[in-house]
Amino acid sequence: MTAMQPGEQRDEVEMLSLMLLIRRFEERASQQYQAQKIGGFCHLYIGQEAVVAGAVAAVRDDDYVITAYRDHSHALARGTSANACMAELFGKETGCSRGLGGSMHFFNRQNHMYGGHAIVGAHVPLAVGMAFATKYLGEDRVTLCFFGDGAINQGSFHEALNLAALYRLPIVFICENNLFAMGTSVKRSTSVKQIVDRAEGYDIPGEIVDGMNFREVRDKVAEIVDSIRKEPHPAFLEVRTYRYRGHSMSDPASYRTKQELEKYRLDDPITRLRAQLTREGKLTNEQFDLLDKQAKETVLASVKFAESSPQLPIEKLHDYTYVDGAKP
Amino acid sequence: MREITYRQALNEALAEELERDPNVFLMGEEVAEYQGAYKVSQGLLERFGPRRIIDTPISENGFAGLGVGAAMVGLRPIIEFMTFSFSLVAFDQVVNNAPNMFMMSGGQFNIPITFRGPNGPAHQLGATHSHATENFYASVPGLKVCTPATPRDAKGLLKTAVRDNNPVVVLEAELLYSSRGMVEPPDEELLIPLGKAQVKREGSDVSIICYAQTVPLALKVAAQLEEEDISAEIVDLRSIKPLDEKAIFDSVMKTHRVVIVEQDHPFCGVGAEVCYRIQKNIFDELDAPIFRVSQEDVPMPYNERLEKAVLPNADKLIAAVKNVCYA
Hints:
heterodimer, A: alpha/beta, Rossmann fold, two-stranded antiparallel ribbon, B: alpha/beta
């Protein structure tokens, strides 16, 4: 992806292929997890692809992106290679965090992907700090802070929103509302009728968009980011989406019905963008099949890459505690 | 050299580092307009302006996390906790975010942040406001922890902490803010390395290992012991992590008897680690079991007489010294 100019938009076919890459990556990760090639926890993004793709399509490459633990997608969307992502899941030195972070801690400093954070809500203050630094240094970057609907009842979330509003920081809080915090539905966890109402309590403008619709997400984020670049301020976006899989690999998602899942599958974000592009004559079936084939091949190659990659040598165990190698 | 207070020394350290590096900023509750709850940041707002001296709402978790995020993208925050008892509200940021980032990002993000503020029991503040947090933070890989006891150490260690590329916890001694001591003039750069202890008083019969608020106590006791012909060497750790093993061992190999006086609790306290390292490495140098004087293992009572009974004091320390000297 190249640097965006103001007003410019990323190519939609390119973004569709990103969504395909995320989907195929997650499917393959699921398979490799079941084959016990991947350890720890593993949370899949399948169903939510239009959210990160739409948001990233609306910002510059040097804007900041930070998210929670459902993060493979965000690393891929920020241009991290499937190889580096899969190798991270395999715990290999060639992983995007050298195999030291794992599924929940993907980082890519060069591409402005700031994690991969696994304590619910704890990264929201970090995002505010990144936006603070931007304003402090007089830059015009915008921080995109992604989190789930589970984060909005954590104290850190509330403190962070208040600080962002108080200091007028250039940040978009993007709540990926997939209706469930692990197995607890928003209805059972959240006192307000709709999540976006939380923003009002901090005098932060908030909006709701359909997270199954790439174009709607992209256009809304673009509009917000445009306004923030003119005059720094925080904004809140509740993106309504759905994850097809359980909370993590160990969750059969028995707290929801098959009918509910099927309803969302019919509204699939990839199918929808494909249909939009096909209808407008921008994509043929053959082209789509080719994109999908490429995504599958890229992901398959990433498994081979991860398998054949070395692990960090045990002698380097103590090299990642203090940057100056201090011995406690 | 001239005599200044511990508070002034910290203030000079902040001012000098703010002056030196435009990416350094100070943030916390009441640090700007109020001039600091303990007046450590007095005058800094006027000198450096509201962009760099920043008041926060009472949101320790929020602004500590803000600091970590700002450090991820190139700034060097100094985060003041009004007291380290309040840092417990931000424990997740100090313990789970700042020191873990370097490892879990595979070395992409080190966090050059300083968390500072008063620490340790003060006077009749009750259980919630009397925490000595050094052993909590020292047990976390990735954090460095220092505990200055004198104005000179306070200035030199804080300046070093701000320049360190790792998260550093600077635990100031709440009861020592007004204490005075000799410090180099401002035009002379004063940097004291982390992980270096200092013998504050030479002696030959017993090593009293201390830090922060127990340093003046140990020095007072050493003077008293002198009258009883017991020569105590006072080793001020200055840094808890990294721990200066060499300085500790050098002293023990000279005196062969050890008392550790710490301001935290006995269970998994700083003294336990020091004691372990001595017996593991130089067991044969010991002529007596090591004694520790620490707080009683109870939440801090408000009642003044009971509070005194909880804290290390001269009588407890003298008794411990006499025990190890078989005197």
